[in-house]
């Protein structure tokens, strides 16, 4: 289906942050599959884990539990605020489950009138009809109407708009602690604290979508831990499986009791293959030394990008983001041309992302080395020189 616009080059193999295409050309990958392969491509420990599980037990269906998923659930609840975990296959499914849980909880505890969902403009929560409607980007919902009702969108980081929107009829407030697709925009700590207070006051459920910001990406295991604001529900996916499809919804015992047998489910969710890999990923990332290195690499990469902004003021205007989820904002002269910068970088052998038409997004694997940060800077400069040279 014509739903993607893939690059002309076709990757055929990769290791760590190194990738090669069909012609044998080498690339430095600063995308990690949109913040997914955080431990790098073909990570040896994960290959071993997958191989071992593939020779043991693949799939059972939800009429049975399995040891890997129980170990993963225990590890995630021990590492977070949560008491319970629901496993699925993607971030969209995790958010769908979170929103369904919030609605069911509100209907059970308060009545059907408490059903409104409040989300942020320029957010992204998935591509199901419910989650894409909750995401505040009209370009993704046009032509799919009628959309699910009782969903309102407010500007991100706008405290007064939040106070005005979050009333007694709201069942859920869903927010990304760092907006990814919406332009790599970190949440203001005070804004997130106010959302928590408003949810406490109105009985709404606070959902943190950490599909992109979670699993060490910001330098904490989950971004909420760095902010000191605890949600009622947290969703994770992307880096949780390092490329093997898995999503998770984490919540409290109180909320989990809203669901009973048959009220929600999934065929593949929590299968032994996905769960065993996710556990290995979690055990690797959730180490003080590993997370400290993410913060260190972030400081080094931000410093390089800020120098780049000074050296190319016609192309870039600012750096923003958190940890190793960073955005370089395009300057007025290059407005709408983030894709051109991405293509120029790719031509030099550097893979980067965009977040809309005005932000270049970098999300390298969390194992990125200082030498690779230097090399990315060199390649990006070559790309910019080529892009800005006189015709």
UniProtKB/TrEMBL annotation:
GO CC terms in record: cytoplasm
GO MF annotation terms: diaminobutyrate-2-oxoglutarate transaminase activity; identical protein binding; N2-acetyl-L-ornithine:2-oxoglutarate 5-aminotransferase activity; pyridoxal phosphate binding
Major subcellular site: cytoplasm
N6-(pyridoxal phosphate)lysine PTM positions: 238
Matches recorded under InterPro entries: AcOrn/SuccOrn_fam, Aminotrans_3, Aminotrans_3_PPA_site, Class-III_PLP-dep_AT, PyrdxlP-dep_Trfase, PyrdxlP-dep_Trfase_major, PyrdxlP-dep_Trfase_small
Cross-referenced NCBIfam families: argD, PRK01278.1, PRK05093.1
Protein name: Acetylornithine aminotransferase
Gene: argD
């Amino acid at each position: 289906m014509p739903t993607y616009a893939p690059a002309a080059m076709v990757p055929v193999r990769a290791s760590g942050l190194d990738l090669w295409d069909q012609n044998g050309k080498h690339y430095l990958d600063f995308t990690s599959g949109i913040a997914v392969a955080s431990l790098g491509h073909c990570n040896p420990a994960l290959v071993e884990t997958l191989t071992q599980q593939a020779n043991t037990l693949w799939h059972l269906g939800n009429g049975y539990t399995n040891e890997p998923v129980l170990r993963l659930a225990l590890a995630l609840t021990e590492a977070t605020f949560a008491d319970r975990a629901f496993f699925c296959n993607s971030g969209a499914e995790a958010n769908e489950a979170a929103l369904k849980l919030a609605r069911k909880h509100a209907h059970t505890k308060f009545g059907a009138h408490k059903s409104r969902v409040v989300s942020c403009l320029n957010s992204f929560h998935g591509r199901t009809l419910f989650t894409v409607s909750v995401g505040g980007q009209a370009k993704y919902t046009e032509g799919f109407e009628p959309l699910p009702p009782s969903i309102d969108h407010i500007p991100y980081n706008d405290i007064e708009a939040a106070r005005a929107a979050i009333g007694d009829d709201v069942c859920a407030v869903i927010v990304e602690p760092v907006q990814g697709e919406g332009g790599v925009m970190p949440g203001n700590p005070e804004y997130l604290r106010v959302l928590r207070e408003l949810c406490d006051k109105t009985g709404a459920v606070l959902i943190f979508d950490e599909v992109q910001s979670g699993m060490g990406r910001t330098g904490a295991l989950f971004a909420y831990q760095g902010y000191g604001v605890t949600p009622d529900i947290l969703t994770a996916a992307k880096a949780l499986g390092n490329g093997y499809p898995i999503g998770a919804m984490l919540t409290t015992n109180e909320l989990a009791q809203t669901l009973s047998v048959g009220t929600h489910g999934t065929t593949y969710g929590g299968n032994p293959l996905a769960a065993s890999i996710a556990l290995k990923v979690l055990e690797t990332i959730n180490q003080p030394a590993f997370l400290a290195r993410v913060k260190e690499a972030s400081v080094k990469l931000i410093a390089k990008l800020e120098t780049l902004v000074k050296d190319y003021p016609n192309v870039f205007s600012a750096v923003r983001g958190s940890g190793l989820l960073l955005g370089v904002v395009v300057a007025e002269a290059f407005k709408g041309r983030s894709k051109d910068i991405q293509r120029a970088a790719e031509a030099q052998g550097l893979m980067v992302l965009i977040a809309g038409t005005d932000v270049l997004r970098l999300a390298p694997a969390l194992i990125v080395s200082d030498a690779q940060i230097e090399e990315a800077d060199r390649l990006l400069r070559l790309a910019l020189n080529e892009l800005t040279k006189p015709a």
